[in-house]
Specification:
The chain has 397 residues and is α/β, with parallel strands linked by helices. It is built from twelve helices and 13 strands. It has a five-stranded mixed barrel. A five-stranded parallel beta sheet has the order 7-6-8-9-10, with helices on both faces. It has a three-stranded antiparallel beta sheet with strand order 11-12-13, with no helix packed on it.
Length: 397
């Protein structure tokens, strides 16, 4: 038997093994998973209870996965065997990976749900209230799909006064999640000029794969960070996406979203009429109450008014005047009595009263009373006052 080299043996094994296992499906469990290498590739183990093999997932294959690899995850890998001749090692190189039991998209949904829920993106405290009467609505969807037609038709039927701005975006296939997320962010960036009050984001029905853009993280983050309230309208009523859970409100269909967001004009007019009637009744009632109140105030003010005050002061003055007159009359009567008494006393002391009794008073030319004879000189004129009249005389000695 002719001997061969180790290299030749290894090359023969490589050709034999790789040729026999160039397309094989293997079921097992991911082990020793440490994430992607800096090159973007994954190097880990693939095992079951009895054996294990090295597993290689190239960067291109990894980027196509909807779900995340992790230790203990049971999957079915389609790939081929690769022999590294220098070390005599062989590895399974994956070309596709599907989780066991669940489809890849279902697992990806569960993983995304768990991660975003732990971050609080689904919490009610972050939900914003929708405006009751929006005047301008934005719609992020495909410009050619049935969803945009349903939304516009429903909105126009309900209220032609509401403006609708359609921002076209790819909603299915590669790059669709990035387009939807970009549309949401741009509407927020331009809203000072656009004045959008609420946004509908969605598409019509389809398979889980068709709706997948609305289960991806870029769309979820854009909805969560939007300052404009977002209504999610993806697929049919039975479909639930990550976008539905993050949005401020989930509508079961695009048509339902338009019915929720756009207020019905007829209902608004009826409401205005009702409010007018209520306002009119309220005003009448208020006027009546104020009329009664003002009447009471008027009566009080009239009682407190200047004319009444003048009347009260006039009455007070009249009362004081009467009292003053009575007091003056009383004082005058007392004065008369006093004067009469004093007059009688004066009369009793008056020289005239003495004269009435036969006495007289003689005065010289100067009016001085002559009390002694020595006061009179011969030839001096004298005036004697009698009870009645006067006598003029001249002294002779």
């Amino acid at each position: 038997m002719e001997a061969i080299t180790v290299t030749e043996l290894s090359n023969r094994l490589k050709r034999s093994i790789e040729g026999a296992f160039d397309n094989v499906a293997v079921t097992g469990e991911i082990g020793n998973y440490r994430g992607a290498h800096h090159s973007g590739h994954v190097y880990c183990n693939f095992k079951d209870e009895g054996a294990q093999i090295k597993l290689i997932v190239w960067r291109g294959t990894l980027q196509k996965l909807r779900f995340e690899l992790k230790d203990g995850l049971e999957v079915t890998i389609v790939g081929k065997l690769d022999v590294y001749t220098k070390r005599g090692e062989y590895s399974l190189v994956a070309t596709s990976i599907e989780p066991r039991g669940l489809g890849g998209l279902q697992l990806a949904f569960q993983q995304m749900y768990a991660r975003l829920q732990s971050e609080g993106l689904f919490d009610d405290e972050h939900k914003r209230e929708l405006p009751r009467y929006p005047q301008r609505i934005a719609v992020v969807t495909s410009p050619t799909g049935a969803a945009v037609r349903d939304i516009i038709t429903t909105a126009r039927r309900r209220n032609r006064l509401v403006e609708i701005l359609v921002w076209p975006a790819k909603v299915q296939g590669d790059g669709s999640a990035q387009e939807v997320a970009h549309a949401i962010r741009r509407l927020n960036e331009l809203n000072e000029q656009l004045h959008i009050e609420v946004m509908i984001v969605g598409r019509g029905g389809g398979s889980l794969e068709d709706l997948w853009a609305f289960n991806e993280e870029p769309v979820a983050r854009a909805i969560y960070e939007s300052e404009i309230p977002v209504v999610s309208a993806v697929g049919h009523e039975v479909d639930t996406t990550i976008a539905d859970l993050v949005a401020d409100l989930r509508a079961p269909t695009p048509t339902a979203a338009a019915e929720i967001v756009v207020p019905e004009l007829a209902g608004m007019i009826e409401l205005v009429h009702e409010q007018q009637l209520r306002l009119s009744r309220g005003l009448r009632h208020t006027v009546e109450l104020w009329g009664e109140k003002l009447g009471n105030i008027k009566s009080r003010l009239a009682a407190m008014g200047p004319l009444n005050q003048v009347r009260r002061e006039q009455q007070r003055l009249d009362y004081l005047w009467e009292n003053t007159q009575r007091a003056m009359q009383h004082q005058l009567a007392k004065a008369r009595e006093t004067n009469a008494s004093q007059g009688q006393r004066l009369n009793a002391l008056s020289p005239l009263a003495v004269l009435q009794r036969g006495y007289s008073i003689t005065r010289d030319q100067k009016g001085e009373v002559i009390k002694e004879a020595d006061q009179v000189k011969p030839g001096q004129e004298l005036v004697t006052k009698l009870a009645k009249g006067e006598v003029r005389s001249r002294a002779i000695g």
